Amino acid sequence: MPWEVITIIIIGLVFLFLLSGTSVAVSLALAGVIAAFVFVGKMGALGYVSWHICTSFILVAIPLFIFMGQLLLHSKLSERLYEGSAALLGRFPGGLLHANIASCAIFAAISGSSVATAATIGTVAIPEMEKRGYESKIVLGSLAAGGTLGILIPPSIDFIIYGAICGVSVGKLFIAGVFPGIMLASLFMGYIIARVITRPQLAPTFEKIPLKPRVLRIISMWPIGIIMFVVLGGIYLGVTTPTEAAAVGAVMALVFTLAYRELNWQVLKESLRGTIKITSMIMFLIVGARLLSATLSMLRVPDNTIVWVASLNVSPLVIMLFIYLFYTILGCLMDGISIIVVTLPIIFPIIVALGFDPIWFGVAVVILLEMGMITPPVGLNVYVIHGLRPDRPMSEVFIGIIPFFLMMVVCLAIITAVPEIATWLPATMRGG
User: Measured between alpha carbons, how far is 104 from 86 in angstroms, rounded to an integer?
Assistant: First the structure.
C-alpha cells in the first residue's frame, strides 16, 4: 500500500478517536498500536519504546518544575511578586498593566505553565485593577497574553517535551527562550504604553508610593529572583543539567515557602496533588506520541515525507510559512502539548532536512503555541481569565487579546528574520 494512503489512514484514525471523545493520549497510542499491527505486523518494539521514554532522565525535570511552581502558586509569594512589580513599573504609562506583564514573565520563569501563570497573577491583579478603574478589555487581554509567557520563558514544560521527543538539548532550549521571551514581554509593554498615551482613560495614573515602601516591595521579590538566577544560571554555566536545576529549584521553593511561614499541610497537599495530576497527564501524552512516532518511523513515513517535500522545488521559507499557518490553525483546535506530541514526529525531520536550526524551531513552535493559548475556541488562557471574572462577557477577553496576538505575530516575524535572537545565547553556554 502506498505510504501516502497509510499516512492518511493513520491520521484519520487519530482524529476518529478524538472526535469520539477519546483522550488525546489514548487516541495517539491506539492509532500507533493498530497501525503497527495492521501495516507492520509486529508490536514488540512498542513496549521498548514506552519503557524507554518513561525512564528518560530529562523527563524527571517535569514533576520537579511543576512542584516548584505549585508551591509558589499556593503560597503568598505570588502576591509579593505582583506588589514588587507594581512598585517597580507602576509609574510608566499604563501603571499596573505593566505589572501584569512583568509579574507574568517572572512567575513564568519559575512555573513553566501558562495556565498557572495566568490564574495566579490574574487572581491577584484583577480585583486591584477593578478597584482603581482600569478598562476591563485591556486588563483581561494583558493577563491572558502575559500568561502565555509561561511556555516561552524558561523553564518551560513545552521545551522539555520538545527536547525529549526531538532529541534536542533541553538546556539549550531553555536558554534560547530567554531573549525571545524578553522581547515579547517588551512588545506587550510597548503596546500598552502607546495605547495608554493615545487613550489615557484606559488606565488611571498610578499613585506615587514613597521611596522606602517602594524599595521594600521591590526587595520582597528577592526569593523568586534567587530561584531564577540559580536555575537558569546553573544550566547556562554548565553547573547543572536541567533535571538537576529543577531539583534545586524545587528545594529552594520549599525552603522559601517554609521560611516565610506559608508552608502548611494544605499548601503541601494541594501542591503535591497538582503536581501528580499535571505530570500524569503529560506523561500519558508523551507515551502515546512515542508509540505513534515509532510506528510512523517503522513505516518510513517521515523519510518519505522529506523526499516529497524536497520534490516540491519551493523555497524552504515558503514551506516554513505553511508550517506556521498549520500550527496557527491547530492552535485554535488543540492544546499546546497535544500539538507538540502529535505533529513533531513528522514535522521535525522536515525542518532538519530543510536546514533550519532545531533550537530556533523549538522557540518558533512555542511562540505559535502561545498564539494558540489565546485563540478561540480552545484558548485556555482566555477561559482561565474569564473564569476569574465570569460576570464579564467573554467577548471582552477576546477583544482584549487581539493587539497582543498581533504582537506575537511581530515577535515570530522578527525571530524568523533574525534567528540569532534565539540561537546566539545557547551557542555561548558552557553546558548542554
Answer: 12
Mean pLDDT on 242-259: 88
Sequence length of the chain is 432
d(C-alpha 245, C-alpha 260), whole Å: 22
Q: What is the pLDDT of residues 153-186, one digit of tens each?
A: 877 888 988 988 888 888 899 899 999 999 999 9
Dihedral pair phi/psi, residue 431, rounded to 5°: -100, 165
Span between the terminal Cα atoms of the chain, in Å: 42
Beta strand ranges found along 189-292 (DSSP E): none
- The structure's pTM equals 0.81
Q: Which three cell numbers stand for residue 324?
A: 506556521
- Could you tell me which residues come within 8 angstroms of residue 136 by beta carbon, excluding any fewer than 6 positions away? 130, 389, 392, 396, 400
pLDDT digits (tens, 9 = 90+) for 14-33: 888 878 878 777 888 888 88
Task: Find the angle CA(323)-CA(187)-CA(130) to the nearest 5 degrees.
Answer: 115
Cβ(296)–Cβ(346) below 8 Å: yes
Cβ pair 218, 106 in contact under 8 A: no
C-alpha cell at 355: 536546514
Is the separation of the CB atoms in 236 and 175 below 8 Å?
Answer: yes
User: Is the C-alpha dihedral spanning 131, 135, 138, 141 positive or negative?
Assistant: positive
Grid coordinates in use for 56? 528518560
Rg (alpha carbons) of the chain, rounded to whole number: 22
Cell 513564568 locates to 108
